[in-house]
Amino acid sequence: MAIVRALYFHADLIILDEPTMGLSLKETRKLLDFCRDIKSAGKSSIFIDHNVFHVYSVADRVVVLDRGRVAGEFMTADITLDDLMEKMYRVAETGSLD
Questions:
Q1: Strand positions, DSSP E, 1-89
Q2: Where in the sequence is the domain holding 59, given as residue range(s)?
Q3: Residue 86 pLDDT class (50, 70, 90 cuts)
Q4: CATH code of the domain containing 46
Q5: 3 state DSSP class of 14
């Protein structure tokens, strides 16, 4: 419902915080399509989620956070999903990308 209100009021930025939680696969697909439509409409969104597969599929840029700090920032055009996941594993294990 909040997404519909944001669109109704012509929001330029829509923030989605864990939007796929509790959704069925079909509903998740619709939500991800909606996120792509936001971009097509010239609007922006911030997609906060623990599921890197969902994020990577709709994002232009991924910011990896670790305990409240930015651990890395990547353009999806410049990094594969596998490489992004490897970097995220490294952050989880060591707290750093180094």
A1: 13-17, 44-48, 61-66, 69-75
A2: 2-94
A3: very high
A4: 3.40.50.300
A5: strand
